[in-house]
Known about the structure:
Helix content: 55-70%
Shape: globular
Number of domains: 1
Strand content: under 5%
Structural class: mainly alpha
Order of helices and strands: HHHHEEHHHHHH
Number of strands: 2
Distance between the termini: 10 Å
Amino acid sequence: MTNENKSNFGSQELLNEAHLVLQGQLEIIQRAFKKLMDCEDEVALNLYTLLFSIYDSSKSILILSSNYQVRDSFLTARTVFELTLNIGYISCEGKSALDKAKRHMNQKSYRDLERKLNIESINLSVQTLGIENLIISDELKKSLEEYTTQKGLEVRAWTGENVFKKIEIISKKYGNKVNDILNIGLFNIYRHGSEIAHGTLFGLFYIIGATTMNQRPKNTEDLLNSHRQHLTLIILSISMLIETNLTFMNKYKDLSEEISASEKLTLKLANKSK
């Protein structure tokens, strides 16, 4: 590849290229939507709604990254990564995983009716709609039991699997390329997005480039360069995750053309980022 076809990593030029690539990926998802809307498979229809959330969050990343909102770009990208894992997991496990997701949703909806908040210092009490007269079906009872520990606490993770196990399950079915992309997302997005979401000092200092001991930003331009690097990597990772999601949904409708087009866009940005 010639130098004229490459852009400096961290440059505004490359970030602009990344925005064009992500816009192209969104157009590809729209084309995939038109095919998936005709699908009558129950699993596919539910995965379609999750894929729409990825489309929606990717649009948000375009807005956030254009305004150098690195922190919130990481947080939004983390949701795209989590959605990808859920789509891949359900695609692998099929109807049994979808039913599990629905049981989690039902018990969560029930628990949401029972929330209370008392603030004694200002004599304020807030309560959601009561559940005293709500009849608990056998199905709901089983769902509550499934997502309650022996100590009576709510089980938070709907699959019961951690992120590494999900990647392992998905990769076993979809192969090395999907495994590589998910691990790139884990490395570039999930780990740091988790730190940022939990408000740790590391998350804050990582955003401003102050966790690299020997090469910290010395001025505003250095900081902007660091931010552009973060944002370009986020968009590149999202672009790869979109391709992966199209691969998952290809199980239900022929999306080979969309997958090929998505792959070309990703490679274009990856080559310019080298």
